[in-house]
Amino acid sequence: MPIEVKALTHVYMPGTPFEKKALDDVSFTVRDGDFIGLIGHTGSGKSTLIMHLNGLLKPTSGQILVDGLDLSDKNVSLREVRKRVGLVFQYPEYQLFEETVVGDVMFGPRNLGLDEAECRARAEEALRLVGLSDPALWDKSPFELSGGQKRRTAIAGVLAMKPGTLILDEPTAGLDPRGRDGIMNLMRDIHAGGTTLIMVSHSMTDVSRLCSRILVMNHARLTADGAPADIFADAARIREAGLELPPCAALAEKLREAGFEGIPREAYTQDALAQAVLAALEGGNP
What we know:
Layout: E1 3-12, E2 20-30, E3 35-40, H1 46-52, E4 61-66, E5 69-70, H2 78-84, E6 85-88, H3 101-111, H4 116-129, H5 135-138, H6 147-159, E7 165-169, H7 177-192, E8 196-200, H8 204-210, E9 213-218, E10 221-226, H9 228-233, H10 235-240, H11 247-257, H12 270-282
Parallel strand pairs: 3-8, 3-9, 6-7, 7-8
Antiparallel strand pairs: 1-2, 1-4, 4-5, 9-10
Helix pairs in contact: 3-4, 3-6, 4-6, 6-7
């Protein structure tokens, strides 16, 4: 289920003193099976971009096609689009409101017009998928859960709608290290199950560990689109976008500056850097 973004431009409050161009001629295609990291400085246009991908915002100009459906076509059902593209906002646990965990997860399927039995079956399946498989939890209030469990419940609510593409805005924000690792492992599992993922993140560590493709936003424009090794090899472009390199990529850069030969610019993960340093030492470098 590809998503095609063509020359997308969005202007907030046009024709007023507060006019702001949030997206400027952005084009790319999300392919089936992608795990995309969307990165950029605060205000670069990331959040505005993802809200276009399931019709929450309309373009000022340009076009978005979701599995061939043109989101600017008045005859296209946004309910149908949101079946296909799920969006999990930052701190989604603040949007939990039902009396029970399972009731909250059933909310999305109910909005699709499904019968109660199908809603319940989808909710239970989604809760198991996110690691909340104990039925004793399902009838609890979501407000009795831990922070990580609340986050998983909110993600389950979107997964219960069975989207082909799932978009997550800063999914590990505000979690302790254990909760963060749990959500990262969950995203790996969801992707391995066949769901296309787009993750907005300020954490270069998360992006470098999880994503197979990275989009870089800088002042409303898409300035880079490629594999993590290629993106993080260009330190100047990353810093120009107001970002920092992943810690391992930054350490690799310092080792090269210190005279270590054979440390490739693609050594942006812990394993890749360790192998490169070991090879350099075994080869007598520096």
